[in-house]
């Protein structure tokens, strides 16, 4: 019993340092969204998120305790077998220190991409940052300067205003995307199309993997 508690505490300490991560799932597929859509990529989905979007399509990711703490070596060795492009997603990956994972991925010359709400401090070495701000917990400072793409999810008409507010905060090279939330795509896509034609600094992003029926 004492040994079990000791091992559990050691594992939690490693997770705290980002040397182990609660791994929800990992899979090789096609990036469906944003700038890299159509690119083959290995996805690492890390558990843990307290942002609480009511329309979230991966609510099972929220409770980190339900996902097994996994060593960085195991995650990276799996990833390296499949692809040069690695997408770290969640959950909210910045819940955890991403430095150990990304250092290990870069040591194998892999491209590191992150999909994040930016709700927590940016850690890790990233080749591509997809920032997708959420109203419940706004991004933390520096990530606005570092983001390569801004992906705003449109669930209702008020989200256009939020998207413009967030676009005013990102760096000038950041690519701007509006993406309909899947459950309301039939209603919101025509509004997005109309908005983008009137505001061509924005582009439309669709969840093409869902149309293709792939993960
Ligand atoms: S930030 Fe992402 S994972 Fe977290 S609740 Fe929102 S959509 Fe879900």
From TrEMBL:
Chain sites annotated for binding S-adenosyl-L-methionine: 55-57, 91, 132-134
Swiss-Prot/TrEMBL cofactor(s): S-adenosyl-L-methionine; [4Fe-4S] cluster; Mg(2+)
Catalytic activity: 6-carboxy-5,6,7,8-tetrahydropterin + H(+) = 7-carboxy-7-carbaguanine + NH4(+)
GO BP: tRNA queuosine(34) biosynthetic process
Keywords on record: 4Fe-4S, Iron, Iron-sulfur, Lyase, Magnesium, Metal-binding, Queuosine biosynthesis, S-adenosyl-L-methionine
Radical SAM core domain mapped to chain residues: 36-215
UniProt xrefs under PANTHER family: 7-CARBOXY-7-DEAZAGUANINE SYNTHASE
Role noted for this protein: Catalyzes the complex heterocyclic radical-mediated conversion of 6-carboxy-5,6,7,8-tetrahydropterin (CPH4) to 7-carboxy-7-deazaguanine (CDG), a step common to the biosynthetic pathways of all 7-deazapurine-containing compounds.
Designated name of the protein: 7-carboxy-7-deazaguanine synthase
Organism: Cellulophaga lytica (strain ATCC 23178 / DSM 7489 / JCM 8516 / NBRC 14961 / NCIMB 1423 / VKM B-1433 / Cy l20)
């Amino acid at each position: 019993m004492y040994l079990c508690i000791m091992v559990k505490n050691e594992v939690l300490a490693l997770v705290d340092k980002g040397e182990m991560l609660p791994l929800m799932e990992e899979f090789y597929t096609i990036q469906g969204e944003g700038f890299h859509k159509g690119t083959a990529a290995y996805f690492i989905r890390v558990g843990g998120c307290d942002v609480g979007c009511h329309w979230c399509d991966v609510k099972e990711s929220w409770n980190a305790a339900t996902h097994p703490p996994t060593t960085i070596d195991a995650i990276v060795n799996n990833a390296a077998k499949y692809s040069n492009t690695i997408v770290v997603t969640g959950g909210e990956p910045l819940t955890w220190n991403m430095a150990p994972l990304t250092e290990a991925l870069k040591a194998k010359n892999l491209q590191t991409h992150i999909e994040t709400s930016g709700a927590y401090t940016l850690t890790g070495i990233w080749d591509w940052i997809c920032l997708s701000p959420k109203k419940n917990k706004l991004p933390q400072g520096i990530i606005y300067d570092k983001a390569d793409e801004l992906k705003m999810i449109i669930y209702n008409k008020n989200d256009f205003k939020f998207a413009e507010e967030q676009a005013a905060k990102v760096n000038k090279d950041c690519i701007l995307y509006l993406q309909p939330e899947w459950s309301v795509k039939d209603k919101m896509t025509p509004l997005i199309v109309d908005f983008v034609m009137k505001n061509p600094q924005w582009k439309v992003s669709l969840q093409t993997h869902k149309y293709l029926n792939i993960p």
